[in-house]
């Protein structure tokens, strides 16, 4: 009998999911290692790492048989170390798994601004009823407004469909636009069309990975091209925005507001001006949280385990040269 192939799980899966993997793949030896000490004892024989934080250079050096890493996040910039890029290791991510809930999160932020919830929630904390003293934030209706989605991947497409369902006009930016826009999207422009989307959008949403090409894609110039009534939302990575330029634009009223799930750095320091700006909502990198993560994620993992053991091409392969 041939020796089982060792696949290391770096996440504490529910027993039902672990049982499924072991039942469906009897030729694989699944080892659960959630501490650095436990991982160190398995790296020498490990052919795959599933979940957990990005491996270090030392981890990779100790894993000569490693051929596959499955990240359980969509963003993988932490994995982009030279030691991984130089090895014939396939990196896959969880792109698409978080799309429904992150799209909901963006719309929650947008609707919070639409209904002026931030000052109303502050009044609730103070046990104060609305008294029409002028403190309430202005409101608006999303229907008929334009939302610009920068990065039309799985999250961007999920957001586009839901925003379209609210009656919004949807524009998008994609590095290589499709011949036909996906459902709910009026137009998909290439990266060079960003200025056009900035000028036309009432709401701009960043759904991009952080790479050398996307770092500070929104800076002082781009903020200056946005409408004064526009809102900026970021659920990608904090480094997509020049944060000092954003603070200045928000303070000076050059844009109406920002909904930020991610910042630079993280955690956001307690003395950052962003905390106290009245036109900012910060959600502390929680957009990906969902009780259905592994309901969807286990299907991808199981399919990739099957493909890996069969020597087939894996799903959600990351281009380690491009960084996404």
Describe the structure.
The chain is α/β, with parallel strands linked by helices and 324 residues long. The chain is 31% helix and 15% strand. The chain contains eleven helices and twelve strands. The strands form two sheets. A seven-stranded parallel sheet has the order 8-7-6-9-10-11-12, sandwiched between helices. Strand 3 (46-50), helix 3 and strand 4 form a beta-alpha-beta unit. Helix 5 (99-114) packs across helix 7 (154-165). It is elongated and about 75 Å long. The two termini are 39 Å apart.
The 3D shape can be described as: elongated
Mean pLDDT: 96
Helix content: 25-40%
Give the N-terminus to C-terminus distance in angstroms. Answer: 39 Å
The helix tally amounts to: 11
Rg over CA atoms, rounded to whole Å, is 22 Å
**Quick one: how many beta strands?**
12
Identify the strand order in the major beta sheet.
8-7-6-9-10-11-12
Order of SSEs, N→C? EHEHEHEHEHHEHEEHEHEHEEH
Judged by helices, strands and strand pairing, the structural class is alpha/beta
Strand content: 15-25%
**Poorly predicted ranges (pLDDT <50, ≥5 residues)?**
none
Largest sheet: 7 strands, parallel
Q: How is this fold's topology laid out?
A:
Elements (H helix, E strand, L loop, with lengths): L4 E5 L5 H10 L3 E5 L3 H5 L5 E5 L6 H5 L6 E3 L11 H4 L4 E3 L6 H16 L2 H9 L20 E5 L3 H12 L3 E5 L13 E3 L4 H7 L2 E4 L13 H6 L5 E4 L8 H9 L5 E4 L19 E3 L10 H18 L14
Parallel strand pairs: 1-2, 1-3, 3-4, 4-5, 6-7, 6-9, 7-8, 9-10, 10-11, 11-12
């Amino acid at each position: 009998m041939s020796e089982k192939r060792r696949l290391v799980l770096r996440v504490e899966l529910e027993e039902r999911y672990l049982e499924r993997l072991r039942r469906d793949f009897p030729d694989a030896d699944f080892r659960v290692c959630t501490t650095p000490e436990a991982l160190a004892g398995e790296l020498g024989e490990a052919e795959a790492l599933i979940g957990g934080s990005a491996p270090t250079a030392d981890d990779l050096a100790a894993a000569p048989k490693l051929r596959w890493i499955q990240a359980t996040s969509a963003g993988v910039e932490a994995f982009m170390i030279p030691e991984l890029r130089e090895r014939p290791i396939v990196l896959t991510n969880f792109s698409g798994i978080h799309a429904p809930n992150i799209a909901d999160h963006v719309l929650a932020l947008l609707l919070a601004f639409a209904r002026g919830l931030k000052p109303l929630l502050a009044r609730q904390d103070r046990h104060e009823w609305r008294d029409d003293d002028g403190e309430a934030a202005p409101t608006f209706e999303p229907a008929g407004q334009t939302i610009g989605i920068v990065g039309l991947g799985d999250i961007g497409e999920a957001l586009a469909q839901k925003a379209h369902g609210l009656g919004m006009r949807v524009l998008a930016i994609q590095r290589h636009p499709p011949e036909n826009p996906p459902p709910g999207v009026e137009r998909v422009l290439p990266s060079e069309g960003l200025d056009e989307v900035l000028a036309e959008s009432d709401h701009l949403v960043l759904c991009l990975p952080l790479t050398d090409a996307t770092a500070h894609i929104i800076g002082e110039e781009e903020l200056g091209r946005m409408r004064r009534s526009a809102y900026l939302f970021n659920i990608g990575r904090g480094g997509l925005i020049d944060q000092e330029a954003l603070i200045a634009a928000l303070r000076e009223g050059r844009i109406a507001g920002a909904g930020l799930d991610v910042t630079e750095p993280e955690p956001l320091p307690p003395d950052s001006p962003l905390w106290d700006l009245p036109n900012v909502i910060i959600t502390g990198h929680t957009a990906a949280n969902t009780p259905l993560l592994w309901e969807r994620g286990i299907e991808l993992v199981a399919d990739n385990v099957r493909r890996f053991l069969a020597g087939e091409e894996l799903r959600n392969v990351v281009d380690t040269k491009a960084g996404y």
